[in-house]
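User
Class, as today's exercise, I want you to study this protein, comparing sequence with structure tokens, and judge whether sequence predicts the tokens.
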Amino acid sequence: MSLYGALFTGVSSLAANGRALGISSNNIANVNTVGYKASVAQFETLLTRDTPAGDFSTGGVRTITQSRISTQGLTMSTDSGTDLAISGQGFFVVTKQPQATSGGGELLYTRAGSFTPDEEGNLRNAQGYYLMGWPLDSAGNLAANTSNLSPVNLGDLTGTAEATTSVTLRANLRASTAAAPAYTAGDMASGTVTPSFQTVMEVYDSQGAVQPVRLAFVKTAANTWQYEAIYDGDPANIGGAANNPIATGTMTFDASGQLLTPATSPTITIPWAATSGLTPQAFTLDLAGSGGTRGVTQAETDSVATTAADGAAFGRVAGVSINPDGYVTAIFDNGVERRVYKLPLATFANPDGLTALNSNVWRVSEESGSARLLEPNTGGSGKIEASNLEASTVDMAKEFTDMITTQRAYSAATRIISTADQMLQEMLSIKR
């Protein structure tokens, strides 16, 4: 090894340790960056040529940056429902332009989940990247083709109503009520027979309007009652008074006043006419309750009734929630909740091989392998934690320790250069 080789070795050590100091400095600078993954400086030997046993070749050292992208950071609780963290190996799919889809615009990947709506309602993180998701159909189901992604947009959501599909009746019919002398189905709706008892329930149509449906009861024999469901709105809505009652049925009770039949909840269909702008609407009428202690009974006390219908009037978006399975649910002020998107998580064969870009995002590379889009909680993708953010993986104690060792190594490298320089001076002075 020549003295000049020693100089080159010292210079390579200075360069390698200077780069290591830069890596530590960058880690420390990003200690508070959400979703940041710390890098590690790895040193490797440089040789000028292959060296067989017993021989030596001058060389040096160089630094390789090793990314630790797959390292999981701690999660921090926040008060924003659109702050998202991932517990697992997945990445959020984002794009720089909100109109980009899988067919246009570059898809990038990040763990920085500090998303908030922009002026158009698109969820965008603090670094300016837009969150991508799978749009769901009106029933909240995922389409068979999951290759198409779109920006998660909450600004396009309008109000919604929910039609009634089930009504629960809790009632008592007075046991000592006298039986009607004669009854034919439809007599209560036409006014031929006066009901022994009746109550009005309010149901919601598909446009959110409240519609009155009257339940009328008449006793026809011991422990036997007939009921009619009568639409009390504008008869034109159901094609005329001839379509009333909209449902009829028989109820029987045992000696203790408990309901025997019907054993299952009957279905009532409101035959909306085409002129109403609605399609026929069916809902179930729960008469039996459960355990024999609720539902319709026949006891010697006043006839009373309460009804409870599902569905809701028209409501506007009041908020949004995101569950661990990635479903983005719009919450309306009428109490209705509707799933509108599902968030995919991207996984890679080698996430540490991703190419790092500015703003804490990564791009697919040959070393990382292609992205595989999975539903959360499948295939190791991880679960999504709303109202949480993933903290930086930087360990301050380790970084400061690394800086001390790097500084010492750098100082030692300068001694190599100064010593080699002194030896060269001695060699040059031989000629004097």
About this structure: The chain has a mean pLDDT of 88.
